[in-house]
Amino acid sequence: MRLDVISIFPEYLAALDISLIGKARRDGLIDLVVHDLRDFTHDRHRTVDDTPYGGGAGMVMKPQPWAEALGYVDRLAPGPTRLIVPTPSGRPFTQTFARELVHEPHLVFACGRYEGIDERVYDYAATDLGWNVTPVSLGDYVLNGGEVAVLAMVEAIGRLIPGVVGNAESLVEESHEGGLLEYPVYTKPAHWEIDGVAREVPPILLSGNHSAIAKWRHQQRLERTAARRPDLLHTSQFMAADAIDITP
Ligand code: ADE
């Protein structure tokens, strides 16, 4: 999978050199290149922004550096391309969406700053380059720019690429896979004391009874989802099948 990230703060993306995503890049599973938008400016100050037409607060990113950067990336990696534009006004990023994006051969992430990118850039990408342009939001809050959102999206998408996460089973039972949150986990010691208070691991987990453990974990997922994210339960298939009581 080919990924390109365009940003005025390429050093923000240095985190993509480490941990599982960094290893996946070194192993050749992810071909990721970070570009500095200012390399596509032509003035002494490497200007990427200007005041908004129509007035209002803040600055808007100029179309020319963006068009040149996107055109450059298109020549580097021609072929079907999806442009992901992180913005609070985009489509919500979910696990389902990550699973959709992992099948794309080429993703380009355009990290906007200030009040956003001149809208004509998206029309250029769609019409002249033939790219599929998708604004995407990480959640209903405002970040200072797209970089943090790209770190989150690349990690969520990248770990779905076969071979990136060593134990493929750990992808199956985690939160949001199957529409439920993850069950609680424990490790040694079984009996743990702090400040004079003993805290035990639930005995069922020490029983060796694998079917009983699986049942307990499923029930924990249901209860946790009901307590923390009832919105997920109401839309999932689990309500009718498991008929748990989620009255507060
Ligand atoms: N850029 C600024 N805020 C954002 C958000 N909530 N999601 C994605 N990109 C953003």
Automatic annotation (TrEMBL):
The keyword Transmembrane does not apply. Specifically methylates guanosine-37 in various tRNAs. The lineage of its organism: Bacteria, Bacillati, Actinomycetota, Actinomycetes, Micrococcales. It comes from the Bacteria. Keywords: Cytoplasm, Methyltransferase, S-adenosyl-L-methionine, Transferase, tRNA processing. This is tRNA (guanine-N(1)-)-methyltransferase. It catalyses: guanosine(37) in tRNA + S-adenosyl-L-methionine = N(1)-methylguanosine(37) in tRNA + S-adenosyl-L-homocysteine + H(+). Homodimer. Its main location: cytoplasm.
